[in-house]
Amino acid sequence: MAQAVREAYRRGEDDETLEPQVLVDPRGNPIGRFQDGDYVIFYNLRGEREVELCQSLLDKGFSHFPVAGNLHLNMVTMVPYYQKLNVRVAFSPEEKVRDTLSETLSKQGLRQVKISESEKAVHVSFFLNGKIREPFPGEERIAVPSPKDVPHFDQKPEMNAPGVADAVIQSLQDRQVSFWFANFANIDVVGHTENERAIRKAVEAVDRNLGRCLRAAREAGVVTIVTADHGTVERWLYPDGTIDTGHTDSPVPFLLVPPRAEEPSSWKLRNSGELTDVGPTVLEILDIPKPPVMTGRSLLLKKPEQRGEARNRVLLVLLDGWGYRAETNGNLIARARTPVMDDLQKIYPFVSLEASGEAVGLPQRTVGNSEAGHLHIGAGRRIDSDRRLIDRAIQDGTFFQNEAFLWAMRGAKREGKNLHLMGIVSFFSSHGSLDHLLALFRLAKQESMENLYHHAMLGRRGERRESGARYLETIEKELENILPGKVVSVIGRYWSLDREENWDRVEKTYRMLVYGEGTKVQDSG
Question: Is 101-383 CATH 3.40.50.620?
Answer without folding.
Answer: no
